[in-house]
Amino acid sequence: MAVAKVFQNQLEPLMEWLDKAEKKFGSMESVSTDADKIEQQINEQKALVDGIDKHEPKFEELQSKANELLDQISDEDAAMVKDKISNLQGRFDDLREGSADRLTKMTEALH
């Protein structure tokens, strides 16, 4: 079950990173009306978006490892793995879309 160990070793840090990134995104202030403050918020948002972009290949690799693992485990375990991956991917997609939307709104607010 080396694949399962690799999967788990990839899953845990991604879940931790995603938890932290979601908390950071959720705690960001509303878009300011002050141009200087918006610039600061844009820089903060860009840092988050960069982190998301850097983690995307790790999520893709995890998905690939999950698919490999699904061929080696019972149907019950496969359902749990699929659920974990689906939940994680949904959260990641929501964070990516929310961050991109927020960055667009801030950029538009400056112009």
Automatic annotation (TrEMBL):
One Pfam match: Spectrin
Main subcellular location of this protein, as a coarse class: cytoplasm
Keyword set includes Calcium: yes
Keyword Ligase: no
A GO CC term assigned to this protein in UniProt: plasma membrane
Subcellular location: Cytoplasm
Coiled coil ranges: 28-79
Protein name listed in UniProt: Uncharacterized protein
Domain of life: Eukaryota
Keyword entries, A-Z: Calcium, Coiled coil, Cytoplasm, Cytoskeleton
